[in-house]
Amino acid sequence: METGGDGMMRAEAVQVAQAAQAAEAQAAQAGELAEVASGGQRGAGRYAPSPSGDLHLGNFRTAVLAWLFAKYEGREFRMRIDDIDAQRSSEESAKQQLRDLATMGIGYEGRLWRQQECWSEYEKALEALRARGLVYECYCSRKDIAEAVRAPHAAPGAYPGTCRELGESERAAKRAELAARGRVPALRLRAGVDEWEVRERFAVGGGVYRGAVDDMVLRRGGNAPKGAGAGVGAGADVGAGAPDSGDAGAGAGASAGGADAGGQVNRDYAYNLAVVVDDALAGVGQVVRGDDLLSSAPRQAYLAHLLGLPPVEYVHVPLVLGPDGKRLAKRDGAVTLRDFPGGAQGMLRWIADSLGEAVDVSAAEAAGVAGAAGAADAAGAGGITPAALLRTFRPELLPREPVTWRPAENAED
Question: Helix (H) and strand (E) counts for the chain?
Answer without folding.
Answer: 12, 14
